[in-house]
Amino acid sequence: MVKSGNYDVVVVGGGFLGLNCAFFCAEAGLKTLVLDQAEPGSGASGGLVGALSPHLPRNWSEKKQFQLDALISAARHWKKIEAISGLPTGYGRVGRWMPLDSERALENARGQEPAALEAWSGEYEWMVGPAPSWMSPEVATHGAIHETLSARIDPRKALASMVEAVRRKGAEIRSGARVLRVEDGIVAMDTETFGAAHIVLAAGMGAGPLHAQVVSGGMGRGVKGQAALLTDPGGLPGQMVFATGLYIVPHGTDLIAVGSTSEQDWVDGLTTDEQLDDLTARAVEVCPSLGRSSVVERWAGVRPRAPKPDALLGPVPGRENIWFANGGYKIGIGISHRVGEMTAAMIQGRKVELPERFKAASHGLTAL
Ligand SMILES: Cc1cc2nc3c(=O)[nH]c(=O)nc-3n(C[C@H](O)[C@H](O)[C@H](O)COP(=O)(O)OP(=O)(O)OC[C@H]3O[C@@H](n4cnc5c(N)ncnc54)[C@H](O)[C@@H]3O)c2cc1C
Asked: Which pLDDT band, with edges at 50, 70 and 90, does 320 fall under?
């Protein structure tokens, strides 16, 4: 076994969460290494959709506030990443339309208005009104919501930009580096080990075996999602559309992403099937002009879900210097820079306000 150097921080996993943790650690001057068993972005992060949308404004909670803070600060963060890397991320606060197809949906949408005003501090709008002409009247029988907080990012461009920014901040990234063992102060692959003053566990759905070495209970069962990339048929505005589980995300190029299925029971997390055809057909029902699009790519991945459907962050129980950065589930891209910022702050011994439900204990995880 070769010992390949000592680091202040070794991050296991190079998805959006791990790369953001590495970025903020490196920016703070910590000697940082990212290890990914394949390539950065080869897990859930390497998908197509990139919708950065808020939770519903009613029944506000600290979890919703955490995400809102992330959505608001995202513009600044991704601009900064672009400036450091010199590469685009595809970020844009384009807003979102949601068709209303019943009296009940309309009533609910109107009921959210005052909550949005309060929770979003009047900075972003939630408006209920007539549906736009490009949306099928059949799915928007009762009008539509238009909100101006949502943004989109191009996941693959953003990852490439992030990788470059992390390197320019001085961190190392190693691909093909599968971590098999973690213990206090040591991260081990099959033939190499690294000394690590701090270890960040950000291995997405690959984290189960590593979590099992440091804590009782592991990861939850991931939820599979399928998405497609279509050519832009023209005639659609640059805003996103959300219609019960379906996202239509124009990427400001000539491509539009459609996602995502939500599958609890799956065998192969990486294959696509007729469920994606159904989803694409629904997208055409909502925006008929998509009927002229061609499918450029089909993609599937598994959303990292911790034991509960909340992020899993903060210290590993019973360990001084091992940290969770996982459980991004359906909103992992959107919250990833806040996860990185907070994890780096905790590593530097600073106090952060981490929502209780994101902590290991809330996920039922206890020290070994
Ligand atoms: C279809 C679909 C659509 C989605 N849409 C959105 C969306 O619109 N907006 C949004 O915010 N989120 C979305 N998500 C969720 C989001 O993609 C994830 O929450 C996020 O990417 C998780 O990032 P991560 O870094 O935690 O994990 P991952 O991206 O899975 O990264 C984990 C990394 O760890 C590496 N790894 C695993 N095990 C090891 C090991 N033992 N040693 C070394 N490396 C290891 C893997 O190779 C991988 O690169 C979507 C997910 C899916 C599947």
From this structure: confident
- Helices (H), ranges, the chain: 16-27, 62-85, 103-119, 155-168, 208-214, 274-286, 332-347
Angle between helices 62-85 and 332-347 in degrees, nearest 10: 90
How high is the pLDDT of residue 57? Answer: 87
Q: Is the pLDDT of residue 242 over 80?
A: yes
- Cα(51) to centroid of ligand 1, in Å? 14
pTM of the entire structure?
0.98
Nearest CA to ligand 1 atom 35: 13
Gap from CA of 43 to ligand 1 centroid (Å): 5
- Choice from 17, 71, 242 to test ligand 1 binding pocket (greatest atom count within 8 A of CB): 17
Q: Whose CA is nearest to atom 33 of ligand 1?
A: 13
244-274 core/surface letters (b: 16 or more CB in 10 A; e: else): eebbbbbbbeebbbbbbbebeebeebeebee
What's the gap in Å between 157 CA and the centre of ligand 1? 15
Best residue among 37, 39, 163 to mutate for probing ligand 1's pocket (most ligand atoms within 8 Å of CB) is: 37
In this prediction, residues 284-308 reach a mean pLDDT of: 97
Q: What percent of the chain lies above the pLDDT cut of 90?
A: 94
pLDDT tens for residues 127-158?
A: 999 999 999 999 999 999 999 999 999 999 99
In sequence order, what are the beta bridge partners of 280?
none
Nearest atom in ligand 1 to 225's CA: 1
Q: What average pLDDT does the structure give for the chain?
A: 96
The number of the ligand 1 atom at minimal distance from the alpha carbon of 38 is 47
Domains of the chain: 2-48+156-220+307-367 (3.50.50.60)
